[in-house]
Specification:
Layout lengths: L4 E3 L2 E7 L1 H18 L6 E6 L3 H10 L5 E11 L2 E10 L9 E9 L3 H12 L4 E9 L12 E5 L5 E2 L15 E4 L4
Parallel strand pairs: 3-4, 3-6, 6-7, 7-8
Antiparallel strand pairs: 1-2, 2-10, 4-5, 9-10
């Protein structure tokens, strides 16, 4: 893991290694396998950020399941805009299904709150959220985040699918913004 990495105009320092991320994914997959034993959930991956997390998690899920994708955006630079834009709607019927929303990071919770509500309105049997990262200090939602990989401070992170204005998704580890940058 590099000591620091520079993306555009910002410096980032190591936060979670690829090995630590792998352990988190193992723990989450175990919990999902237990909760959904005997069921066939539909994983809905929130693109773009959750693609690496989803790929690794999906390989370790042992229950019968399906996968679909949804693309939404609420970030510009390092901050949330507060507005959720649906860029690519889900192409799968969710009515009567047990849905697991896979997200890279839940901070304010606005995006996941809106997506969860849309799934319920579309007739989903249940909607659970599984996130790699959760920022409890930033969270403003009034719903439960069902599966949380790691709680982190309210700092901007990149790597393992998360980006800063398009860069950094390919980093195998997570980096956090250096203080005073």
């Amino acid at each position: 893991m590099a000591e620091t990495t520079k993306l555009h105009d910002l410096e980032f320092m190591p936060f979670l290694s690829a090995i630590e991320l792998s352990r988190v994914v193992d723990e989450l997959s175990e919990k999902i396998n237990i909760k959904y034993e005997g069921k066939t959930p539909l994983f809905v991956v929130v693109l773009n950020g959750a693609f690496m997390f989803a790929s690794d998690l999906f390989k370790k899920v042992s229950v019968d399941c399906e996968i679909s994708f949804l693309r939404v955006s609420s970030y510009r630079g390092t901050a949330s805009t507060g507005e959720v834009k649906e860029l690519m709607p889900i192409g799968t019927d969710v009515s009567g299904r047990d849905i697991i929303l896979l997200e890279d990071i839940v901070d304010t919770g606005k995006t996941m709150g809106e997506v969860k509500q849309k799934m319920k309105e579309a007739g989903a049997n249940s909607v659970n959220i599984c996130t790699l990262l959760f920022k409890p200090d930033a969270f403003q939602g009034d719903y439960l985040v069902d599966f949380v990989g790691v709680e982190i401070p309210d700092r901007f992170v990149v790597g393992y699918g998360l980006d800063y204005d398009g860069l950094g998704r390919n980093l195998p580890s997570l980096y956090q913004i250096k203080p005073n940058t």
